[in-house]
Amino acid sequence: MRDKIGDGRKSFWCKASPGSQSVLVGADPETFFVPPYVGRNDWVGMRLDAATDWGEVEKLVKRSYRLVAPKRLTELVQ
User: Fold this and answer.
1) Is residue 5 in some structural domain?
2) Domain count of the fold of the chain
3) Residue 31 contacts by C-beta under 8 Å, 6 or more apart in sequence?
4) Cα 26 from Cα 62, distance rounded (Å)
């Protein structure tokens, strides 16, 4: 599934660990999607709406940061 650019829905994209993208999109395709351009590199998109689980957003952002940031900086994230 690919999200259309400019569909008017708020979302964010983040790096996912290998295999996580297909699990997230498969479990909840209304919330998660494979973003264009970077999706093939294990990035995942999450739509943000009134029912957004902000705890889940926080977990995804922290995991993504740990995957892309230099090791010395990842140690600072709780």
Assistant:
1) no
2) 1
3) 46, 47
4) 22
